[in-house]
Specification:
Number of strands: 6
Mean pLDDT: 80
Strand order of the largest sheet: 3-2-1-4-5-6
Helix content: 25-40%
Structural class: alpha/beta
Largest sheet: 6 strands, mixed
CATH architecture: 2-Layer Sandwich
CATH superfamily: Ribonuclease H-like superfamily/Ribonuclease H
Distance between the termini: 36 Å
CATH topology: Nucleotidyltransferase, domain 5
Low-confidence stretches: 212-226
Oligomer: single chain
Length: about 230
C-alpha cells in the first residue's frame, strides 16, 4: 500500500504507516522466500485471493492475491503475488472479493498454461477464498444484486464448470495468506508459509465433483467436504 501513495494523496497518516512497515521488516528480517524441491508428478497451482472493502480513497478497495506451486506433500513455492488498489468501485464486500478472484484467476491461468507446456501435462488450478457468499455464487448458481459483476461471475462459473478451474474451496479468514496483501496487520498464515515452505490452511467447504483428467486433485488435506 505504501508504494501506492502519491504526492497528491500523501499525508501524515501515510508517513506513519510507512514507519510501521519499516519496523515490521526489521523485526522479521529472517523471513524469506523458500523454494523446496517439489514432486513434479503431483504439482498443482494453489491461489489465494482477498480484498479489503472500501478502505482506500475514493471508496476503492484494496485487492490482493498470491499464487503458489505445490505438490501432494503440501510443499510449495511462491510464484507470484500482488497487492493493488481496485480500478473499479465495489458496492459490497462480495464485489471486492469477486474483483480480486477474477484478477487472481487471470494471472494464474497464464502461469498454469506456461507450466503445463514446459512439463507436457495438465496442471490443476485450485482457487481459494474466505468469502462464503462468493463461494456460493460460484458453485451453487446463486445470484448477486450487483448486476455489473454478472459478466465476471458468469466467466468464472464457466471456467469452473469446464475445468479451467479444477476446484474452488472455502477457507477460514485466518488461514487466507492473501489477507496480508489487503490489510495492515500481522498475518499468521503468511508467516507460517514463509517459515515452513508448506501449505497449512484448513478447507471449510468444497464441492465434490466426479474425477476427470482436468481435475484429479482435491484442494488440500482437509477431510471435510460439502
Amino acid at each position: 500500500m505504501a508504494a501506492q501513495v502519491t504526492a497528491e494523496s500523501y499525508s501524515f497518516e501515510s508517513n506513519r504507516s510507512l514507519n510501521s512497515i519499516v519496523r515490521h521488516i526489521k523485526k522479521t528480517g529472517e523471513m524469506r522466500l523458500t523454494f523446496l524441491k517439489l514432486d513434479h508428478d503431483t504439482l498443482r497451482l494453489v491461489v489465494y485471493a482477498n480484498s479489503s472493502f472500501n478502505n482506500r480513497e475514493e471508496s476503492r478497495s484494496q485487492l490482493g492475491f498470491i499464487i503458489v506451486l505445490a505438490d501432494k506433500s503440501e510443499k510449495c513455492a511462491v510464484l507470484h503475488y500482488a497487492s493493488y488498489k481496485s480500478r473499479r468501485v465495489a458496492r459490497s464486500s462480495m464485489g471486492g472479493e469477486k474483483l480480486a478472484f477474477v484478477d487472481a484467476f487471470d494471472c494464474s491461468f497464464l502461469l498454469r498454461h506456461d507450466i503445463s507446456r514446459m512439463l507436457g501435462r495438465h496442471i490443476p488450478l485450485i482457487m481459494l477464498t474466505d468469502s462464503k457468499i462468493l463461494f456460493d455464487v460460484l458453485t451453487r448458481s446463486r445470484y448477486t444484486s450487483e448486476r455489473r459483476l454478472m459478466v465476471d461471475i458468469s466467466a468464472s462459473r464457466q471456467a469452473y464448470r469446464e475445468g479451467s478451474i479444477s476446484d474452488v474451496a472455502l477457507i477460514p479468514s485466518e488461514d487466507n495468506v492473501a489477507d496480508a496483501f489487503t490489510k495492515v496487520c500481522s498475518n499468521g498464515a503468511l508467516n507460517r508459509l514463509l517459515r515452513s515452505g508448506k501449505l497449512q490452511h484448513r478447507v471449510t467447504q468444497w464441492v465434490i465433483r466426479s474425477k476427470s483428467p482436468l481435475a484429479p486433485c482435491r484442494p488440500l488435506t482437509s477431510k471435510t467436504g460439502q
